[in-house]
């Protein structure tokens, strides 16, 4: 039984909750033991005093030996005769008692000393003379100052000294002190008729409004100018209140004031009741008990409520107790609750982050992290839908509208065939599980879903076309994470192959190491020079001369050879490397254009601009710096943006294009015709050039509808003041047909394949700017 209990205790000690409670307890014990929180405790005391602030009882009257008294009676210090005269004047007004908060030594003036002795003999039963001590700073010993016994026996005198803290504030007064083996009561305890044990003290209640204490000038008392009712039956305290008195110190609630107010506050405290000081242990134990309940509470809300209750008790209870003259420190207890509350908040934050990490912040659907954590679905088929232009569309939408977009996509995916659990990832990825079924049946369902997405989605009055493909992963011997990756690969391949959906081919797993390492190898290629820029010449059809080139990025891998751009550019876009890649191409294209321009003035350069960069506000600044560095005219640089990306981009995200256009840079809509173009889109996009997609160009002299489309596009562009470039020209018939329709420029294999910079320069030198395109192609 003992071993079992020991093991249970050891397990509890290993528990994080038990550890934090134990460490907090130890820290709080040290915190309270060394009174580390005392400054904060005093601040709370003063706040509570302000709340409980009340008028003085009026039973204590301060007779101040103030500046007028010193000017009219005598300079300080007064001799025994001056005190005798003041006591006689006060006695005539029949106070309950008179206390002199100054020790009165023999003055050496016989007549004055006799006068005070005679006065004390007549009225001594109602008079208390003060004595005091001070601590020698060098020896740390007390030096005693008694009023001379010729005036009053020591056993009838009272102590007027008290200790104050590092800030010069007195928070407690002694009941009685030992002086030369004799117990001497404190003046406050004596006036309040509240004796106490020698060497003990009581806390001062500064909630009394000390400004309401009646104050009379000693000058007025001596002159008989004060009403007798102001003093009769009250306790009178006589003290030096002059502005230059050495006994002034900081009094809570008043500021710097005569120390007599400390004694008056002490009298008011004791007359109410004998104060009880509970210290910090009760509050500490209470907070520790509540902290234990909070730490081991199962629900965060319950823990928070317990902590809040603890704070409320430790703040409110001292206030309530002090009305009954009971004082309790709360800072050590608040320290415990604060530490535990911080720990509980951190635990709640961690849990929230864990929950947040499995939920899509936009749609509220479980995300792909939640999918990867799913267990028990291996026998089912995993389907992924990839909205390829999702990111481009979201550039134009705020979070609220993006949520509307995601919900509309969700409704379409679940239409006709409810999905038990749909997962929503970043970049427009949606995934779900279906029961195993013949491939043909599943394919029919995905074809139907694809048909639904042919209808544009309306968000805030704008229509957006969605480019969607589906990937299927049907294996049952791999992890969910691996299957998800395979399904996404299948969806990407479906897009590249022009299909609506595709099932993942397990044979592709052999290429997995290459694909997984492509990103790091792409970074290496940027540094090593394996990435380079090829230039495909552009032909001006009316003059049949080469007037520019399009800069195209190429990757020559040392082992795999030429890597198609269709493989690594999407990776660069998804990973955030597209900015570096585009900067790399732009820098070389501008430098090449500037070099060629010295021999062939007006030679232009075209560079593809990723849709990811349309949201970059600094893209125009970066391009402007490149143009300035190489002294390349802005109008010779053309930035090509795919039509799909441009159409999916909102008005705000088009602003960088407008700024670039205002700089003089030309803007081309690439792959024109593959989206659903409208005049409104053409009006919004600051394009100077339209590049007709190769799928229409290559059949221009074979297909009548394509010919009409190309011809109408040329006419429309010219009417808008835009130039038309046809890409994918591979035969002379197509070139002549385009020239007949008025097309401005053309590029394609007939004119020249993409070549390295040196070959481009060599080809231009050999044929000259005005030579035929076919000759350039042959030479290059």
From TrEMBL:
Where the record annotates domain EAL, the positions are 515-768
UniProt entry tagged with the keyword Membrane: yes
Do the record's keywords include Transmembrane helix? yes
Looking at the record's lineage, which domain of life comes first?
A: Bacteria
An example of a Pfam family matching this protein is: EAL
Q: Name one GO molecular function term.
A: cyclic-guanylate-specific phosphodiesterase activity
| Residue ranges of the TM segments | 278-297, 302-321
Q: Which UniProt keywords apply?
A: Membrane, Transmembrane, Transmembrane helix
Tell me what this protein is called: EAL domain-containing protein
